């Protein structure tokens, strides 16, 4: 395969993946995020590898990109951020507990967990979702491949059935950016309504 053919194929996969996003479910998640923003509750994100980096990227967008004012930002935590906590929990307890333990400490009822996973089968992601549900949090996921175990246990999932980890990770950021832009627009509309 020549370079240009590979790049063309990649672009086609991205276009196909974008068309497969369930916009009704995306609206549902964005409505929950708006409610959390208004009530000053918390949003937690988790993922492994590239999805961990995407969790941090989306957290940055939610805490600064939305409104660019502290009173308009989401209270957001990327659970993949603190290396001291992650290595401590992985070493002293189990790698499967690196996200769920943090949720047990920080999470509260009606907070939101957004899990990012290509396969949907990572044990630490599955455990985080189960823990969040026990706490009474709302659980969402952005998933690739067949959705794995996460698809069956989350409250709402954006599932893009594509067998390509890089496209699955690209879609996590695209969806995160879509949510951020909608929240920005919603803030502007609400301000105008108040005025």
Verbal overview:
This protein has 195 residues and is an alpha/beta fold. Helices cover 59% and strands 13% of the residues. β3, α6 and β4 form a beta-alpha-beta unit. The protein is built from 8 helices and 5 strands. α2 crosses α8. The mean pLDDT is 95. The protein has one domain: Glucose-6-phosphate isomerase like protein, domain 1 (Rossmann fold), CATH 3.40.50. The longest helix has 30 residues. The protein starts with a helix and ends with a helix. The chain has a 5-stranded parallel sheet.
Characterize this entry briefly.
With 195 residues, the chain is of the alpha/beta class. It has helices spanning 3-19, 23-39, 50-65, 83-92, 100-106, 123-135, 148-153, 165-194, and strands at 42-46, 75-78, 112-117, 138-143, 156-159.
